[in-house]
Design a protein that fits this description.
The chain has 7 helices and no strands. By secondary structure, the protein is mainly alpha-helical. Among the domains are: about 40 residues, no CATH class; about 90 residues, no CATH class.
Length: about 200
């Protein structure tokens, strides 16, 4: 691969500057210890040259998010933007203010209840959820207000029973359909048999 002529020119220039730096100690003393030396300029020129080469090779093309607006620049200031984004991207559960965690749990509570097998488990889960909602409302720790409603235990248990009965009926219908298919596959037609 041939080298970029501009990069070669910068290298040559930096070598000449470094040779002149070695030869004249008074010039270096006049610039002082805090002044930007030729070494800094040389390094900046090398970096710029490497960046320009990478651009020409297309290494910065098709980067994720290219041509799209930056996320989170909606005009309002949220000091906790980074923790909210981390919770969303990592799909962390149980973190954050009680108001937010209870809202998320409330949205997924029916699915969680449907995974339970016994009515006592459902009642315990609902009572625990209601207890945590009431505790969060009582605490004055700051943060967003808790607007998640408590659940009526008896009504939720009745709804759980109905969903469970519908699921069981659907499963039974599926099993019956599968049995019918199996019996039709294994049955032989009578017209093909020979009598001896």
């Amino acid at each position: 691969m041939t080298e970029d002529p501009r990069l070669a020119a910068m290298r040559g220039r930096s070598e000449r500057v470094s040779q002149s730096d070695r030869g004249d100690p008074e010039d270096r003393a006049q610039r002082g210890p805090g002044a930007a030396g030729d070494g800094d300029l040389r390094r900046a020129a090398m970096v710029e040259g490497a960046i320009q080469q990478a651009i020409r090779r297309g290494e910065f093309d098709n980067l994720p998010g290219a041509g799209k607006p930056l996320p989170g620049l909606d005009g309002r200031h949220d000091p906790d933007w980074w923790i909210r984004r981390k919770i969303e991207t990592e799909q962390l559960h149980g973190l954050g203010p009680a108001a937010l965690t209870l809202r998320v749990e409330d949205a997924k509570l029916d699915d969680r209840l449907d995974g339970m097998s016994f009515e006592a488990e459902v009642r315990d889960a609902l009572e625990d959820f209601n207890r945590r909602v009431i505790e969060a409302r009582r605490q004055l720790l700051g943060g967003p207000p808790v607007v998640t409603p408590t659940r009526d235990v008896d009504a939720e248990v009745a709804a759980w029973r109905n969903r469970r009965a519908q699921r069981q009926a659907a499963e039974q219908a599926q099993r019956d359909t599968e049995r019918t298919r199996q019996s039709q596959r294994t049955r032989r037609p009578r017209w093909g048999r020979r009598s001896l």
